Every structure is written in C-alpha cells, then in structure tokens.
Amino acid sequence: MGDNTLLANGNGNTPLPRTSTETLQAATAPETSTISLTTPDTTIARDLGFLPIPRRLRYDPEHPAHFGLVINATFGFASTFVVANLYYCQPLLIEFSKSFGVTYDEVSRIPTLIQAGYAVGILLISTLGDLVRRRPLILLLVFISGALTIGLAITKSLVVFEALSFLVGMTSVVPQILMPLAADLAPPERRASALSIVLAGLLFGVLIARVLAGIIAEFVTWRAVYYFAIGVQYLVLLMMYLVLPDYPAKNKGATYFGILFSMAKFAVTEPVLIQAYLINLPSSACFTNFWVTLTFLLGDAPYHYSTLVIGLFGLVGIFGVAMAPFVGRLIDGLIPWFATVTAIMALLVFQAIAVGADGVNIAAVVIVCFGLDVFRQMAQVSLTTRVFSLDPNARARLNAVLLLSLFMGQVMGTSVGSQVFTKYGWRPAAALSVAWTGFMLFMILLRGPHVPRYTWLGYKGGIEVRKSRLARSGVDSAVAAVTAEPDAAPTSDEKKREASDPPNCGDVEKAQIREKDKIEVAENSE
C-alpha cells in the first residue's frame, strides 16, 4: 500500500490521501457509544403535550447533551428517594397496627403488597423505557407516586392504605428506567461507573429509608414520614425536570406486546442473561439471608443489642455503598466477566468469615457487613454491564428479566435462611450462604469471557483480563492488516471477509470495520 492510503471523502467522490500515521491514529481511536436512537422528524418542545421542555434539554442530534457527573448524580439522588418508597413502611408496622386498630398479621400485608406492586411495575411499566421517550415517562411516574403518597399520609382506612401501597410500588420503578438510560448515555469506557452510581443510590435508598422512618416516627408521628416522602419526591420531580435531557424513543414502530414478547424470548435464548440470572439469584439470597438472620444474632447472647443498635448496623452498609465510584472505575478497566469472578471469590472469603463470626468478636460481624455490601455491589454492576452489552436497544427489558432474579433471591434468602437459623443456628445459616456462593462460582466458570454470544458453555478467544489490552491487540491486528503486502495471496477466510465488506469501502476502512467488529463481539460476549 505504501505510505499513503486512499480514503473516500465526505461525498464519496475524490479519494483523499491518508498517511500511515493518520491510519494508526484512526485504528487507535476510542470506541464510541453503541446506542442507536431513533431521530425524530422535529425537535419535541413539550412533555406530555403541555409541559415545556427547557431549550437546553431538548434533543438535538447535532449536539447531543453531555452525560456528565451532574446528570449521573441526579440519577443517583432520584433512585435513592424513589426506591425509599418501598421501605418506609417496614419499621412502622407496629405504629400502623395501633393507628388502624388491627393485628400485626393484618399490617404485615403492607410490605408484601408494596413489593408485589414493584414487581408488577418492573414487568409492565419499566419495560416502556424501550418503547417511549424516557423523560416524560419518568416525570409522569414521579408525579403519580408523589400524589399517591398523599393518600398514604391522610387515609384512615387500612384497606385504602393497602391499595395505595400497591400502586405506589407500581409507580416507584423510576430507578429501573434510569439504570438502562445511564448505560445508554454514558461513554462505553465509563458505563460501569455510571451504573454503579445509580445502583449506589438505589441501595442507599433501601438503607436510609428505614433509618429516616424510624427517627421521624419516634419524634413526631408515622404520618410525618409520608409527608416527608411527598416533599422529597416532588423535589426529585423538580430536579429531573431541570436536569434530565430529552432523548427520542429507541424502538420506533415497536408495540407494547411485542416488547413483552421479546423480553420473554430474551429470558430463554440469551446464554449471558441466563448465566447472570442464575448468579444474581443466589447472590440476592445470600445478602437477604445475612441481614435477616443478623437481627437474631445481635439480639441474642452474647451481644444482647437493642433494636436501635441493631438498626445502626445498616450504617455499615452505607459505607459499603459509598465505595460505588471506586468499584465502578475498577470494573471499567476489566472485562466484566473477570470482575464478576473477583467479586464472587471475595464474597466466598467474607461468607467464610461470617460462619466463624458467631460470638467471636463484633469486629468480625462489622467486617462481614462491609465486605458483603462492597462485593455484592461489584458483582451486580459487572453482571448488569455484561447483560446490557447484549442489545443496546433492549436494555430496559434485559434489566427487567435480571431484576426478577433479585426478587426470587430475596424470597429464597428470607424463607430458607430464617428456617435454617431457627432450627440450627447462625453458623449453619451462614454455611448455607457459603454453599450458594460456591454455586455462583460454578455458574460463572461454566462459560468463559470471550465465547460467541449464543455459545452456552466453554471457553474461546483467550482469557485476557483488561479491556485496554484486548483493544490494543485489536489495534495491532488492524495495523498489520493495513500494512500488509498487497501481492500476498488471500486466504479462504480473507476471501469470505472480503465478500462481506461494505461496497465502495477502502482497505483501511475494511480493516477498521473488521477489528471494531472483533472488539464489539468480545464485549458483547460479556
């Protein structure tokens, strides 16, 4: 080829010379986001037909909004105080019983109903993120959940309270719309970091809701908890209105039932998704098993801690959540499969410590609390990153399927873990979590990091750990292809590739397209 390579110009007419230096720079250019958005015919100026969109937030395909720290932090804040709706009720059940004049059994239906509503919302509402514009959907859901919370604060009927709790759960799925949206908008090299911040906000909401509800109800009344929830939700609504850019729908022409059908299809045809599901389920069970049985451990001999002190152990989990940015940066540098393996092996170590923590020293319990929060978060972010790479236009559906494993794991961890603890004690219950974590390790090792998308078992393509080295090896191949002698006889594989190359495409573009495809295949295999 010599020192110059011919490239078509912008009009596809006169070839333009490119030096080998420019060729190398093009080969080493960073990957761009793979998200495919449908460009609307005209810029939409109003949400829901009447609410003006600030001009700087309107979608402009020529100048798309920058996904920076402000938007990412806003996503995290919104996740915290929307998901908190699901957990305010848990420390208030005794107060509900007194206020409504009913038994503990009757008020125990409230957390079940709100979680059931959340599950329905994930399946039927969060999947709309793959069908409609996300900005108006998010604003509408936050407004509705805030309005329903007004009813929770003022009603004097348990039946009405239960019905409203179910509906609040259904509309509190905004974090599960923000997760795929963050993955869509963040640059590929920051995707895990962006997801970790949103997930940290979600986990922080789970932890802080119980603390806030307990403190407010202790010094005021349980209804004040819901007045607080109303205020903070409309604060979230205002923040999202002022910060969230508008983006077009991702799947123009798709139907709602078609979206649901494709979600079911993903659940049985995608090896990566099924592997992640079977890892996430026992991971959630281990986490729930630990926190449920921890209450019994700390309340009995030799600790005899009060309910307040036991509740403060949730603050240890907050420190683990605070590690999210560091966890995300670590995952961004690794092939997600290896990040998952690292997290599972660390979880095995901390679960083993938990087995021996019974009555030994409270420091061991604190260490386990911290370690489980950090590495479970690492496992979930890396699994989510792998799953989201399967299809950028179906991330809401993929996320919904993955979340089902969390609910099933919580049920399994609560029921099985509690039964084992009450019959045999702390150590057998902790050993059960060790066994579940061992199953997670077995499942991740069944399928390697670089196998083709629809391969169910095995290893292929090496075991490179770092993304940078994988990309660099692709660049080396591209440079070799560009500088190859033109007289060399093509192999049969090269002939096949040549036949599949786009028409009117120069040698350099062909090499770059091939190597980009290789890198995308390697990442999609995650």
UniProtKB/TrEMBL annotation:
Residues 481-491 have a biased composition (Low complexity). Residues 507-526 have a biased composition (Basic and acidic residues). Residues 68-455 form the Major facilitator superfamily (MFS) profile domain. GO terms for cellular component: membrane. Keywords: Membrane, Transmembrane, Transmembrane helix. GO terms for molecular function: transmembrane transporter activity. It is found in: Membrane. The chain crosses the membrane at residues 65-88, 108-125, 137-154, 160-182, 194-213, 225-244, 256-279, 303-327, 334-353, 359-375, 396-413, 425-446. InterPro entries: MFS (IPR011701), MFS_dom (IPR020846), MFS_trans_sf (IPR036259). It is a multi-pass membrane protein. Residues 1-20, 481-526 are annotated as: Disordered. PROSITE patterns: MFS. Signal peptide: none annotated. Coiled coil: none annotated. This is Major facilitator superfamily (MFS) profile domain-containing protein. It comes from Fibroporia radiculosa.
